[in-house]
Structure formats: structure tokens, C-alpha cells
Amino acid sequence: MKKEQEEKAVSKLNDIITLAERRGFFFPSCEIYSDAPSGFIDYGPNGIALKNKLIGAWREFLLKKDNMIEIDGSQIMAKSVFTASGHLTSFTDPLVDCSKCKSMFRADKLIEEKTGKIIPEKLKNEEYDKLLEKNKITCQKCGSKLGKAKRWNMMFQVGIGPEQREAYLRPETCQSIFVDFSRLFSTMRIKLPIGIAQLGKSFRNEVSPRQSLLRSREFTQAEVEVFFNPKKTEIAKFKDIENCKLRIQEDEKISEMTAKDAVKKKVVSSQLIAYYLSLMQQFGEKVGIPKDRIRFRKLSDGEKAFYAKEAFDFEILTSLGWIELAACNNRGDYDLCGHAKTSCKNLEVMDDNEKVLPWVFKLSMGIDRLIYIAMDLAFEKEMVKDEERAVLKLPANIAPIHVAIFPLVNKDGLPEIAQKIHKELKESFDVFYDFSGSIGKMYRRQDEIGTPFCITVDYQSKDDKTVTLRERDSMKQKRVKIDELKEVIEKALR
Ligand SMILES: [Zn+2]
User: Fold this and answer.
1) Nearest Cα to Cα of residue 404 among 379, 377, 374, 429
2) In the predicted model, is pLDDT for residue 81 greater than 70?
3) Distance, CA 3 to ligand 1 centroid (Å)?
């Protein structure tokens, strides 16, 4: 990114963070205390409303559409789980500390910042040492010499009971799905292929959390593990999406091709994988991400995990550049194999008289990232009559509030009319009632929350039973009969 562009991106990030804090979207956790650790975030009422709507869309357009099942696993899990998954040995980031002030940094990020090149997380420690020296990189805080690179394991360890038995906060939600798989398969009368989903918190002890929601130590994941028979990747439901146009980036070039062509040209290995990529893309579009800001970046062999058969990052173009929203990863039998071996349990299942250890295609999305992306795409600053207006042009289906209602003055029978409208509309929409301050200020507040409509009850309302309906993006106002409000709003939300 060019310098000017970069400054603009950072200033937008800061604008969104201050708006989020000012309007009850999200803010730092434990902020009244000086020992509040960084990388933890609390959501306020508007943030949780946005979050719930995005999660609702995930359930509606992914889980329900594909008849998946959902579980809710515990956040603390046994040590053995992470021995089997490999996290205890390899879930690490490269770390360097300052020889003088002891500040700690991610070695790869320091080199990236200095050189502008992408540095893999999985180089050998000596390779980082060489790069740090070659680029003359010193401590960012005090300028002193840095120590040698080492590996930092990001798992949060906890002690269970008074005997403090070793266990861990999960670093990803998928492990419960793997360890529960055998029970779910036998009790839920399911057949391969089957998507098993989970929404929940995950924890990673990052060296340096940054960019607010984009890299925090506690975050919400929405994951799907599709279990399938590797010999049966041609699936009937592929027909439903075969003409869906996927945007896939391979070797620096984005091409748009139908799911059918993607399989034919072997850009995607099978119908099954292409089907789930299509669902993911359709979900993105349903929550208002424009298609030209979406891409599946096919990872090269050097980038993807060693066990991955194929991997795509589902990325969205924001003002900070392309951000990974979800990892779509064909993990083969790596997970079930690891758990079968460590637990000494047979995790094979029957598929039409054949015993198989299923493969897994994983679609793992960060909900906090999705919230940030939605706000980044919606945020605008514009001049209105010499005054700056900040507005979140969120798609109406994910806006925290659909309609806000104000009486022009808090007397002369106007609040009673407004409250009656509030009560009626509440049954169909998310509605907010406000009566403090000037109408202009109340409009601005709702603009910043992303409320698509504001209704004002004035003296004319008493005479002709109409109100003013103001539209967020155009700021146009029109008079609408109170009786017709519901219909007008419903139509617009659709
Ligand atoms: Zn230092």
C-alpha cells in the first residue's frame, strides 16, 4: 500500500474504533483498571445486536440451507485433545525480546514492517535471526539490540480443581466437533457428508494483539466441519450451485468462474469443495459484502498447513486491504486420525456398508472480523451543510436498530402518539425510542449506529395521523400515514 493510502486506512480504523466506543458497539475490556490486559474486548448493546444478526445470517444461509447440525462445546478442554491435535508442540509464533528493556515482539511482523514483504510464521529461528540482522532491525521501543528468535506457544493453560490439573482454553472451536463426532454420528442418525457447526469463543495468547477486533486474544468463531467420504465427492446438491460464479485468486490473478468450471479446470478439487465455497460466498453476499470485494485466495503449498490437501482463504477487500474472514481448508483425515491414535478409539463410521475414516473440509470464520468488515464497508464521512456527518450505511438486515422514533417535543400529546407507534412497530422490527435533545442530534446519533429509518411525530401528526419518515442514506424525508408505516418499512427492509 502507498504511504498516503496507508495513512488513510489507519485513520479510518481509528474513526471506526472511536465510533464503536462512543456508540456502544465495542470497547476495551476492564477499561477502568490500569492492569487491564490488551487484546480483550467487550461488546455493548449495539455491537451485540449487530453480532447477533450476523450470527443469525450464518445459521440461516449456511447451516439451515445445508441441513447442518450444531453443537456448543466447552471452552476448557483436556490436555490430550491438544496433544492429539498437535497444538501443544506446534501452535507457536516466532518471538524476539529486547536485550535491554525486555519488550517482546513477533519476529515475522518486525521484519514485515521493515521490508514490506510477507514473512512466513513457520521459518526456522535461525532464519529470523539472519533476516533481523540483515535488515538492521532493533527494539521498536528503545532501539537496543534484539535477542535470538524463539518459539512462543499461544495456548492459555488453566489448572483444574485444587490439584490444578493441566488443561487448556481452546484455541479454536473445531476440536470439540472432532472429539464429539463419533457420538453425534451414532446418535443423530446422520449420514456422510454432514456439516457439523459450532459457534463460540476461542482463546489465543497472542504476542502482540492489535487492530482492535482483528487480532484479539479472545474471539468468537463460527466454524463448520464437513465430514465426507473421500471417495464420494460428487454430490447431488452441486446442481443447485453449479452456475454460481466463484471469485478465485490463483497466482496473483482473480478470475471469476462458475463452480462447474472451477471443478472442470481443477482449480477446485471436487464438487463437494466447490459446493461449500459457493455457500460461503453466498453467505458473504447475503450480509451485504459486494461481490467485487470478495475473493477465495488459493494458498500455495508453501503457505498451507502440511496436512492440508487444499486451502482457500476467504478474503474481503476493506480499507486496510484484503482481510482473511474465513479459512476454508481440506484437512484430509488429519484430525480424526490424530484423535483416534491418541484416544485409542476407533473413529471410523459406516457409509453405505463401507467403513471409512471421514475427511474434513473446514470453514472457519471469525465473527469479530466480520463485524469489523461490516463496519468498515459501511462507514462514511460526508459533509452536510458545512457539518461533517459520520454514517454507517449498514445493510438494513444487519443494522442493530431498524427504526428510531422521536416526538418533536416532549409534551402536548406527541410522546403518547410516538409511544403508541413504538409499541406497535416493536412487534415486527428492532425499534428505538428517544426523546432527548434536538431532532438533528438524534438523527446524527442514529446515523452513526446505522439505523436505516427515523420517524418523527410532530403537531401535524395530531391532525392528519401522518409522521415524517427519514431515510438514512439520502436523508430524504417524506410524510407517511401511521397506519401504513409497517408496510413501508417492511418493503424497504426486504
Ligand atoms: Zn528495548
Assistant:
1) 429
2) yes
3) 26
Q: How far is the CA of 137 from the centre of ligand 1 (A)?
A: 11
Ligand 1 centroid to Cα of residue 102, in Å, is 6
- Cell numbers at residue 302, please? 508453501
1 CA → ligand 1 middle, Å: 28
For residues 369-376, average pLDDT: 97
Q: How far is the CA of 98 from the centre of ligand 1 (A)?
A: 5
CA 106 – ligand 1 centroid, Å: 14
Burial of residue 489 (number of CB atoms within 10 Å: 0-12, 13-18, 19+): buried
Residues 6+ apart with CB under 8 A from 251: none
Cα separation of 58 and 329, whole Å? Answer: 18
What pTM was estimated for this model as a whole? 0.94
By percentage, how much of the chain surpasses pLDDT 70?
100
C-alpha cell at 479: 410524510
DSSP line for 197-218: EEEEEEE---SS-BTGGGB-SE
Phi and psi at residue 355, to the nearest 5°? -85, 125
Distance (angstroms) between ligand 1 centre and the Cα of 443 equals 48
Longest alpha-carbon distance in the chain: 81
pLDDT tens, 100-139?
A: 999 999 999 899 888 888 788 788 999 999 999 999 999 9
Ligand 1 centroid–CA 139 distance in Å is 5
Q: CB within 8 A of 100, min separation 6: which ones?
A: 139, 142, 144, 145
Distance 146 CA to ligand 1 centre (A): 8
In the chain, the amino acid numbered 55 is: I
Q: Which three cell numbers stand for residue 414?
A: 406527541
Cis bond before residue 193 (omega within 30° of 0) = yes
Q: Report how far ligand 1's centroid is from the alpha carbon of 104 (Å).
A: 8
C-alpha 123 – ligand 1 centre gap (Å): 24
Nearest to 234 by CA among 258, 206, 264: 264
